[in-house]
Amino acid sequence: MARLIGRRLLLMVPTLILVSILVFALAEVLPGNLGRSILGPYATQQQVDILNHHLGADKPLYERYAVWAGHFVTGHWGASLQLGTPVFSTVMRALGNSLLLAGFALVIIVPTSILVGVYAGLRRDSLLDRAITISTLSMTVIPEFVSGVILIVVFAVTLHWLPVSAMPPQGAPFVDRFYYLILPAIPLMLLELGYIARMARVGTVQVLAMPYIRTAVLKGLPRHRVIFGHVLRNALVPTVTVIGSQVGWLIGGLVVVEFLFVYPGIGNMMINAAQFHDVPLLEACVLVVAVLYMLSNLIADIVVALLNPRIRMGG
Amino acid sequence: MSAVDSQANATDAAPAAALDVRDLEVTFHRRGRDLPVLKGVTLHIEPGEAYGLVGESGCGKTTLAMAALRYLAGNGTVDAGQVLVEGRDVSTLSEEALRKWRGEAVAMVYQDPATALSPAMRIGDQVAEVFRYHEGLKKAEALERARESLRRVALPDPDATLRRYPFELSGGQQQRVVIAMALAVNPHLLVLDEPTTGLDATVEAEILDLIEELRGRIHAAILLITHNLGLVAHLCERVGVLYAGRIVEEGPARELFTDPRHPYTMGLLRCAPRFGMNKTDAALQTIPGTLPALGEPLAGCVYSARCPMAKPVCTRREPDLYAWPSDAGVKGAAEAEAMPPDPVAYSPHHASPVGEAARHARCYFSAQVPEMPQMAPVVGASLEARGASSGDVLEIKAVERTFKDGRKRLTAVHDVSLNLKHGETFGLVGESGSGKTTLAKCVTGLIAADSGTVTFEGKLMRSTAGRRSQDALRAIQMVFQNPDSTLNPAWSTRAILTRSVRKLAGSRSGSVRAKVDKLSADVRVEPRFLLQKPADLSGGQKQRIAIARAFAGDPRLVVCDEPASALDVSVQASILNLLVELQTSESVSYIFISHDLAVVRYISDRIGVMYLAELIEVGSAEEVFNPPHHPYTEALLSSIPKLDFDRRLQRIPLRGAMPSLSEPPTGCRFHTRCHRFLGDLCVQQEPPIQEAVTGHTYKCHIPPDELLAAQLADRPASPVEA
Amino acid sequence: MAPAGVVDDSRTQEMQADVAAALEQRRQRRYLVRALLRSPTFVIGVLIVLFWVFMGIFSTAFTQSPLAQHPFAILQSPSAAHWFGTDDLGRDVLARTMAGARTVLIIAPLATLLALLWGGIIGLIAGFYRGITDDIIMRLVDVLLALPVIITSILILSLFGKSLAIVIVVIGALFTPVVSRTIRSAVIGEREREYVMAARLRGERSAFVMAREILPNITQPIIVEGTVRLGYAVFTAATLSFLGFGLGPPSPDWGLTIATERVDLQSAPWTVLFPAFALASLVVGVNLITDGLSSVFSK
């Protein structure tokens, strides 16, 4: 098991290097003149040259990449062009806010969606199953900002149950933050809930058709034992894999929801950085997100290995 | 104790039948259509009795088992009839009573043990579950009982097995676990659904021995469901033959198999090659036509469309299941006589047997069945008549092939050399993983050999098909095993053959179209099927087209990899006959791979036996099947259940499991399992190749004369034909 | 050689056979079509999507102009004159909602086609050749998949500008890895089948085996993948324009409208709600089609 984790962590290194090369190429090389792309068409050539020299953009590519990557590894992420603050601490503070929102959503989604999906799978083709299938299908495909505005209109504007803002006023106790997070978290949840629930349903339906379930039933086991002992464990394998890869979508969703609710997270920061051509900040955000995404896939792989003895022992 | 027992005792004093199926009708509902699967089946199994239910695919045998356990798939319904187990109607059981009843009163063993066990649960927990939920034992006690159960089915090292997961066990061990689970709480009725199908011959023998041995100790009645007549002959006292959802014949196993009284039973017995039969002795009898599809309307007798004895009356009204000989000889014939000449409306048959007797047959003309006309297909010509010359068409030298599996290196073919004469059939036998298919693919170039050479008609062949000349490709073709994937599902049959003729025969044959028509005529596929996609053809037809495809460019060597194994017995025979016939007319050589020894013996001139990637014995078909032969061949031959009641061979049990290909045993590769193990010599030294007679060699430390003496001594009444 | 008459005869026969085979094919296709028409999810999905396609093309012919401003009628709630009300510039929300489908319906299908084309070629090659080719391609695919689509597209669009063509190419490129993965696994499933081996034993070229033997047998997974991607392309295109990486004002595009009008969400929710519902109906429609197709195919 430890070997499996170790190997997967090692595998992340080349992927991370390739991702960093990709980001480096996209942000620093392909746009051509870096200084020009930051300053825009109306800056003078002298201004551009000075900025290019300041950024090191006049050096050879490999050297620029080495310096660039070296700074990232050592935590010297530079300063934001737009805000003037150090990128590292700025990004980390925003990341903390985003993790709070995403974590809050995930903690609710994962158990709920599995429960809903497995239940629908067990009651396959019943009226309830059809209702769950259709509504989860719709949930997964509606963009977060669409469900978000509708939710705002219903719960904040019309019913006044929840605040429109996503952050409590200064000085409010920490617990209050969760109350303010409910409304932004719901669009994220809807999307993931539908997807994971569908996966859990399909997994359950497939496992129910397996011969070993027939064995379990014909052994004369009680229904609860068949479901909890034999169905669930095997049905969860594809579901967990999906949860890992869904974190990518969750991050994409975060960007949208944070932008919609003006929430000070990494997604909102990324949009601002992108709109103001704040390249150092943008790069940092993207790389942090990539690492986060890979880690979540790693966790999913480990859980799958725990559920599946074959992978666990093969590792 | 349980509700089951008390009520069973309450019904009557005389012991009720272990299983009593009455007029059972089951229908499947698929895509808005009703497809009757069982059309009124009645059968009766006494306590402690073993009953064999025989039939080909789609006849409804597994459905019957599932209906008996009240576990029909969601789209199946019982329309009529009853299933009584120990006098209780299964359909009246409450959920909880049903649960108790399953496991305590009835239990089942399944076809594919690999999928019958829960993959993510330890073996111990799976077996212990039965005790926990049926006897209310605590986990530790239940595990203790599970250990006993595993010991009872002779699993080596039960303690270690308890902690293993299913994927860590071999197929044979998995099936032992399933059997242990089924027998855990001593059920009164044990349903065995193709318990050995898909297992290797020696493993099949092991499981059979186990079931036979357990029968002496448990008192469960057995319902054995299988297509393997030999298995039934071995295990069962009584047999029922199922065809298209009807029992067509029933009776004591021995009488039924030696003196069948239904044309279908007769056909089944005739179309499987008898052990030791060869193509030059007699052609295989075939059953014309194909198995009816589910829900296909059948007028009158269900078998009349394929019956060589069918008369007009047979299609008018379905015969009853007459008692034999009392009724069927007299009443059946009389009823047929009395039938008015014009077609009469279909009148429902009687599902139940008519009259009290040991035997029943659903035929008006049971008396004439022994004289059932024989088909007369062409008998295979002898080697000489086929124009076989002494020249070698193919020479394989020191072929070696290793695959990588993670960090392990699996040697699938190790140092194999052999040669094939022009016009000859070389049979290749061995269990799964012995390397026979890999070797065949090295010959055709689908897999590149790591080292060694393949010489065809004096020319060295390139290792992969992609590098071979069009001429070389044309000369060596292949027929594959799986009829469902051998033809491209997106192409029409004619397109498939046309493309092969274009690429392989090229301009040499005048009109491509004429050649395609001739090919399909040669393999007896009617022209109308050429317009169809493969999905619309039966398994046998698909395999015929695949054979036609291989013959498109007039090949000189065709490699047949289990060409008939996936087909039903009645279809298998006609494919084998076709191959024999084409060999005679096209003067082609075959490499014929099969795990079915009777089939290989029938079709081959020479045979090679493979074990763990090595060719351990080569000789003429007759020599290899008779002593002196390699101890492995000896064990393999002894393991086949034969349809023979008088001369039963003692099976030779092989020790242990098949070793891994990544770490083959030292010295002789067979030494870990050999029953003629000599000691250190076998462990340390690779055995020499011994020559029994000219052309018959085997790889063993025991010299031919000693081996012959030992093998004859162990089999005093050696029954294999002289 | 056969006499001329015989050859002619065999040609006519051949033609007859081809005609019969074509008929048979048409029969099977008709069966599929009928099964699809019997699937309510598929039919409803098609109707919704067709409605928006129709509106995207023709809506300006029978609604008010989506761009015309009425300075004296700003932020009016729905009425007989303006069924969906008016926005902050006094533009008719109904007209803007109906016309708002246009950009999404241009971007999404073209991006999907690009992704299918690129992903199809890459998937076929990786799945067919396996070995080192496959390893390298799949490694690169993993790298591209290591970044969420939205993030990468923001990165690229902010650096390269945001014309319609760039948005299409970016979405197409970012969906390519997923498509190639799906197609690769379908190809791997087919390539070990015996009919492919038979083709190799006939001396067929790799390109023929890929295009003529394997491709016709994986059309169903490709179609399903295509509709799934189409749904996500609509989703992504709308999201990008919401985030400000699509067309600029005064386009009536739904995502853009929601982004710009949300300041009035509390006072004039209709300016946002109608485009939101319209967008929701389009994505649900596309996904109903996917659902119908895959359930008919899987039977």
Shape assignment of chain C:
elongated
Structural class by secondary-structure content of chain B: alpha/beta
Number of strands of chain B: 25
Q: Per the principal axes of the C-alpha atoms, what is the gross shape of chain B?
A: globular
Indicate the multimeric state.
heterotrimer
**In total, how many beta strands of chain C?**
0
Q: CATH-wise, what's the superfamily of the largest domain in chain B?
A: P-loop containing nucleotide triphosphate hydrolases
Cα gyration radius of chain B (Å):
27 Å
Residues in β-strands, percent of chain C: under 5%
- Overall domain count of chain B: 5
End-to-end span of chain C in angstroms? 50 Å
| Nearest-integer average pLDDT of chain C | 82
Q: Could you describe the 3D structure shown?
A:
The complex is a heterotrimer of chains A (315), B (722) and C (299). By secondary structure, chain A is mainly α. Chain A has a single domain, classed as MetI-like (MetI-like fold). Chain B folds into five domains: 155 residues, 3-Layer(aba) Sandwich (Rossmann fold); 71 residues; 100 residues, no CATH class; 192 residues, 3-Layer(aba) Sandwich (Rossmann fold), CATH 3.40.50; 89 residues, no CATH class. A nine-stranded mixed sheet of chain B has the order 6-7-8-3-9-10-13-11-12, with helices on both faces. In chain B, strands 19-20-21-16-22-23-25-24 form an eight-stranded mixed sheet, sandwiched between helices. A four-stranded antiparallel sheet of chain B has the order 2-1-4-5. Chain B is globular and about 75 Å long. The N terminus and C terminus of chain B are likely disordered. Chain C is 74% helix and 0% strand. Chain C contains twelve helices and no strands. Chain C is elongated, with a radius of gyration of 25 Å. Chains in contact: A-B, A-C, B-C. At the A-C interface, helix 1, helix 6, helix 7, helix 10 and helix 11 of A face helix 5, helix 6, helix 10, helix 11 and helix 12 of C.
